[in-house]
Design a protein that fits this description.
With 481 residues, the chain is of the alpha/beta class. β9 and β10 form a beta hairpin. The chain is built from 17 helices and 18 strands. It is globular, with a radius of gyration of 23 Å. The mean pLDDT is 97. It has two domains: 265 residues, 3-Layer(aba) Sandwich (Rossmann fold), CATH 3.40.50.2000; 189 residues, Glycogen Phosphorylase B (Rossmann fold). α4 packs across α6. The strands form three sheets. A nine-stranded mixed beta sheet has the order 3-4-5-2-1-6-7-11-12, with helices on both faces. A six-stranded parallel beta sheet has the order 15-14-13-16-17-18, sandwiched between helices. Strands 8-10-9 form a three-stranded antiparallel beta sheet. The longest helix is centred in the N-terminal third of the chain and has 22 residues. The structure holds adenosine-5'-diphosphate and alpha-D-glucopyranose (GLC).
Length: 481
C-alpha cells in the first residue's frame, strides 16, 4: 500500500473559498483504494461546522518549538465518506471566520502549519511515502524535507509533490520576515532557492525543492513558462520543465449531478433537459425578481470577483450587453469595484440583471442548473471548475482560451457541428462581446444546434477517473526512483 498525504489550507466540506477546496476534497476518493491510502491534513479552523468538529477524535497533542516558543499542536482526526482527515489544532492561529485574514499573519499561520505537519508524522502512526502539497501555504514542506529533516532517518525517504493551483499567490514578504517565520538559515535565501526579486517566497521554496511540480491543466503548464503568465517565476518553471506536469482537474460527479442534485428545484438528465431544464430557469427568475420568461437567454456567472476572472472585460461592454435580449445572473464576492459594478447594473436593469453579492453553495447549484450559458472570460485560469460544473449541467460555457478553459471547452464549429461551448482568444472586450452575440444568435435562431451543444457538454467526461490515474502514475514513478 502506497501512503499519500495531502497537505492543504482548504478542503470541502470543511472550508472553501475556491476551486482548491473542491480538488482537495474530491480527488482522494478517486484513487485506487487497493493500492493507495490517501489521507488529508488541514488546519482545524475554529469556524469549521460543529457538524464535523463534533465528530472529530483527538489523536494526540504535543508542544513544538516554533519561533522560539513552545507551541501547542493538537491532532484531531475524522473519517468522512471513507477518507481519513487529520486536523492541526492551535486556536491562536486558526480562529477567526475565514482561512485567510491578514496577509502577514497568514504567512505565519501556514509556516506554523507546515512545521506542525512534519512534526506530526512520528506520532500519528501514518508516515507518508509522498506528501502532496497544494499551493503556497504548504510551500515550505518540501524545503523542510530536504533540510533539517533530511538528516533524520525517519524522514529521509519521504518524497514531495508541489501542485500549483494558482501561481499568482506565492506567500511573499521581506527576506527577514520569511527567514523568521520559516526558521530557515541564510543559506536558503539566494536567487536559486527562496529569494525572488529581493523578497522571501514560500511557494518558490516548494517549487525548487519538491521532487515533482504539477499544475492543474496542460495549457497552464506552457503558459507559466512565459513572462506573461509566469508571475515572475517563468525562469524557474522553464528550469524545472522536466519535472513539471499538467493534470487537469476533475469534478466530483457525486456532488455535481443534475439528475440527483437536491439543491435544484428540477432535476434533469441528458435525455430530458430540453423539456425540463427551463423549469430551473423560471424558478430562479421568480426567486431573484427577474422577468419570468422561459424563452429568454439567461447567462450566469459564479465567481470570486477578482481581476483574474476578466471582469474588466465585462465592465467595458456591460451597457451593450444589457441592451441585448438576455438576462444576467451573478453570484460572487470579492473586490469592491466589481461588486459595485454588478450592483449598479442590477439597480439599473432590475428585470435583466441579478447581482447576488454573497457566497452561497446552494444558489450556485441553482445557477448552474438554470442558466443557458455561463460566462468565464478569465485573464488567466489554471484550470477552472465552474466551467466544468456548467458543462455537466448543460449550461453552455463562453470562455477565454486560457489555461484549463482552453483544455476543457471545445469551441462550437457550425460547419462540423462539434463543440461544447464558445470561446475567444485575445483578452479584449469586443472579441468577448462578439462571441457572446454569436452565442445569442445560435440560441435564438438555431435552437436545435444550441441543444446539441448543451447535449455534448453534458456528455463530456470531466470526472476524476482519468486524472486520478495520472496522479497515480506520477506517484509510482516517483517511488521507483
Ligand atoms: P477559483 O478556484 O479560481 O475561484 P474555480 O472555477 O476553480 O475558480 O472554482 C471556484 C469554485 O468556487 C466553484 O466551486 C464555484 O462554484 C465556487 N464559487 C465561487 N464563488 C462562489 C460564490 N459566491 N458562492 C458559491 N460558490 C462559489
Ligand atoms: C485555483 C485556480 C482555478 C483552479 C483551482 C483548483 O483557485 O484559480 O483555476 O480550478 O485553483 O485547482
Amino acid at each position: 500500500m502506497k501512503k499519500i498525504l495531502f497537505a492543504a489550507s482548504e478542503c470541502v466540506p470543511f472550508v472553501k473559498t475556491g476551486g482548491l477546496a473542491d480538488v482537495v476534497g474530491s480527488l482522494p476518493a478517486y484513487y485506487n483504494k487497493d493500492e493507495f491510502d490517501v489521507r488529508v491534513i488541514l488546519p482545524k479552523y475554529t469556524f469549521i461546522s460543529e457538524k464535523y468538529t463534533g465528530q472529530m477524535e483527538s489523536v494526540t497533542h504535543f508542544y513544538m518549538k516554533y519561533m522560539e516558543r513552545d507551541c501547542y499542536v493538537g491532532i484531531m482526526t475524522l473519517t468522512y465518506e471513507g477518507i481519513q482527515y487529520y486536523f492541526i489544532d492551535n486556536e491562536d492561529y486558526y480562529s477567526g471566520n475565514a482561512p485567510y485574514t491578514d496577509a502577514y499573519y497568514d504567512l505565519e499561520k501556514f509556516a506554523f502549519f507546515s512545521n506542525a505537519v512534519l512534526s506530526a508524522f512520528p506520532v500519528i502512526g501514518f508516515k507518508p511515502d509522498i506528501i502532496h502539497c497544494h499551493d503556497w501555504q504548504t510551500g515550505l514542506i518540501p524545503v523542510y524535507l530536504k533540510d533539517h529533516y533530511a538528516g533524520d532517518e525517519f524522514y529521509r525517504d519521504i518524497k514531495s509533490v508541489m501542485t500549483i493551483h494558482n501561481l499568482k499567490f506565492q506567500g511573499v514578504w521581506s527576506i527577514d520576515a520569511i527567514k523568521k517565520l520559516s526558521m530557515l538559515s541564510d543559506y536558503y535565501f539566494t536567487y536559486d532557492k527562496l529569494e525572488a526579486y529581493g523578497n522571501g517566497n514560500m511557494l518558490k521554496g516548494g517549487l525548487v525543492y519538491a521532487d515533482r511540480v504539477t499544475t492543474v491543466s496542460k495549457t497552464y503548464v506552457e503558459e507559466i513558462k512565459t513572462p506573461e503568465y509566469g508571475e515572475g517565476l517563468h525562469g524557474l518553471m522553464q528550469a524545472r520543465s522536466n519535472d513539471l506536469i499538467g493534470i487537469v482537474n476533475g469534478l466530483d460527479y457525486r456532488v455535481y449531478d443534475p439528475e440527483n442534485d437536491e439543491l435544484i428545484p428540477q432535476t434533469y438528465g441528458v435525455e430530458n433537459f430540453r423539456k425540463l431544464k427551463k423549469n430551473n430557469k423560471t424558478a430562479l427568475q421568480g426567486k431573484l425578481g427577474l422577468k419570468v420568461d422561459p424563452k429568454v437567454m439567461m447567462i450566469g456567472i459564479v465567481s470570486r470577483l477578482t481581476d483574474q476572472k476578466g471582469f474588466d472585460l465585462i465592465n467595458a461592454v456591460m451597457e451593450d450587453l444589457c441592451g441585448d435580449n438576455i438576462q444576467l445572473v451573478i453570484l460572487g464576492t470579492g473586490e469592491k469595484r466589481y461588486e459595485d459594478m454588478f450592483s449598479y447594473y442590477a439597480a439599473k436593469f432590475p428585470e435583466k440583471v441579478s447581482a447576488n453579492i454573497l457566497y452561497a453553495e446552494s444558489l450556485s447549484h441553482e445557477i448552474y442548473a438554470a442558466c443557458d450559458a455561463f460566462l468565464m472570460p478569465s485573464r488567466f485560469e489554471p484550470c477552472g471548475l465552474s466551467q466544468l460544473m456548467s458543462l455537466r449541467y448543460g449550461t453552455v460555457p463562453i470562455v477565454r482560451e486560457t489555461g484549463g478553459l482552453n483544455d476543457t471547452v471545445e469551441p462550437y464549429n457550425e460547419y462540423t457541428h462539434t463543440g461544447t461551448g464558445f470561446s475567444f482568444e485575445h483578452y479584449n472586450a469586443h472579441d468577448m462581446l462578439h462571441v457572446i452575440r454569436y452565442a445569442e444568435s445560435v440560441f435564438y435562431d438555431k435552437k436545435r444546434e444550441w441543444n446539441r451543444i448543451a447535449e455534448r457538454a453534458m456528455q463530456a467526461d470531466f470526472s476524476w477517473n482519468r486524472s486520478a490515474r495520472e496522479y497515480e502514475e506520477l506517484y509510482l514513478e516517483m517511488l521507483e526512483e
